Every structure is written in C-alpha cells, then in structure tokens.
Amino acid sequence: MADSPGLQFVSSYAFEAMQKVDVVRLAALSDPELRLLLPCLVRMALCAPADQSQSWAQDKKLILRLLSGVEAVNSIVALLSVDFHALEQDARKEQQLRHKAGGSNGESILVSQLQHGLTLEFEHSDPLRRLRLTLSELLAIINKVADSNGEFFLKSSELFESPVYLDEVADVLCILQAELPSLLPIVDVAEALLHVRNGEWFMCLLVANVPDSFSEVCRGLIKNGERQDEESVGGRRRTEALRQLCQMNPSQALNIRAMVVEECHLPGLGVALTLDYKPDTPDEAVSPLVSYVSGLLLGTNSKVRTWFSMFIRNGQQ
C-alpha cells in the first residue's frame, strides 16, 4: 500500500518510549520523530495529571523543557483551548441531521458553506474551525463505513491527501479523538482511516499518541477484516496497515498473529507477520513460516484448518 511515500512513520524506539513514558528516551529522539508525538506530549504537559508523585512532577518538567522552542507546540495548545463540550454537541446534532437525511451530507452544522476547497479553508482557519472541518470530514467517512455493509470503498479527501498540511491535520485528528473519545471511539476512527489516502500513516500516529490503544485497534481491524484477504483492495490495505502497526510495536507482532488465527480473518497477514518477525535466536532447522503453516494445517481446530486451507487453495489458483 504505497500511498504514503516519503512519510516518516513512528519508529519502534519512539513508540516504546511513549508506552513507558520514558522521558530520557523521548529526549533522545530527533526533531522529526518528536514532531509525530507532539499531540500526546502537549496534552501530558497541560492536563492535570492523575499521578501526583514527585517523580512524575520531575518528568513533567523534562517534557516541558523538551517542548520549549518547538514551533508546532503553540498551534496544538491553541487546539486544546477550544470548548470541546460545545463542539461535541454540534457534532451530535450533525449526526442526527445526516441520519434524517438518509446519510447524505446535506446541510452541515459543524461547517458553514465553504468558500474555497477544504485544504484552503483549513489553511486560513482558526483552531476551532480547523477542528470543525476535520471532525465533519471524519464523521462523514465513519458514517459511510457504517452504511457500506462491509463493502470496501476509497474516499477521496483533500484534507487527508494534501502533503503540505498532513502534520497539522494529524495534530487535529489526535486532539479530536483524545478529547471526544465517546463521539470518536479510536477503533472506529482507525477503521475510517483505512478508506483515505495516507490512512495507515494517520493510523500509526493516532495509535502512537494513545499507545495503550494498540491491541484494541489491531483487534478491531482484524475483526472487521475479510476471511480471505488476498483478493480485495480492502484486504490488502488492511493487511498493510496492520503490518505497519506491528513494525511500530514489534514485541506484539506474534500476539497480533494469534488474533488473526483466533478470528479466522486475514490469513495473509498471519503469513506476512511470520515473515516480518525476526526472532532473537534463529533456529536454522525449521523456518518460522514452516512451523506456523504446519501448525495451522495439522492442528486440532477444524475451523482454523478449513480457513487456512482455503487461503492456500486460493493462492495456488
């Protein structure tokens, strides 16, 4: 799925630092790597913490020092200064309006008539309007996914495609999901992102800024996936997105592969993760792929055997 050429993804080193809130490791990141994690770090620095310990107070000082002088921080602080309660109320009214209109865009409560294209509007907008523009676009995609009955589609979206504003749109996306989690469950947002260009890049940034959501997002993507993934564009995009997530968090790759078998979805992903996986002590006698495939085909679970046999037959054809 090469629709994110040249974009920098979150490294496994950076993701682990976020998971552990390891401020020393975060301080060692390059500026471009740190840029991807700013939404979460700025929220950490600004929001009242549940952890009142002395060690966290010291860590928070280090985070503030890390953020000082980073130009993009100011725009994220401005996004966080918005009245999210009022924004959520308008968003729910818009959802009801769309539902009554049978899913058509019709009139929008979040966004008044656009004078220019979506990207130009985004460029010239204040923080609140940027949040409204992105939220309206995101809800439209989420609604379309809900109405698609599992049929895959690719939605052209100027906002998610413009290379100049990808970082800013990603900031807005991460802040929206963090501040409005009941309106925008992270699994639904991840599913929606599969349907736009650069979706896997946005998805990895979103998960990196909420690292505890990794397993939940991966399971959601697998549950909604195809039983056989090789033959469809949607299956291939889903597989590549999940591989990218596992490259960001390689310690969980085998757990994600176990989810694939448990759900009997995306068999190609199970094979890909086996090939991607680099064990610390390689056993030259039997390759990991042979062990994996033979384990599925010779196992006692007839449902898994049938599912994986179908995948192999499809591959032979």
Summed up, the helix count is: 19
* SS elements, strand count: 0
Q: Describe the biggest sheet? A: none
Share of residues in helices:
55-70%
In percent terms, what proportion of residues is strand?
under 5%
The quaternary organization reads as: single chain
Low-confidence stretches: none
Q: Which structural category fits the helices and strands?
A: mainly alpha
Order of helices and strands: HHHHHHHHHHHHHHHHHHH
Cα Rg: 21 Å
N- to C-terminal distance:
23 Å
**General shape:** globular
Mean pLDDT: 89
Subcellular location: Nucleus
Family: Belongs to the Integrator subunit 2 family.
Protein name: Integrator complex subunit 2
Pfam families: INTS2
Please, could you describe this protein's structure?
It is a single chain. Helices cover 64% and strands 0% of the residues. It is built from 19 helices and no strands. It is globular. The two termini are 23 Å apart. The mean pLDDT is 89.
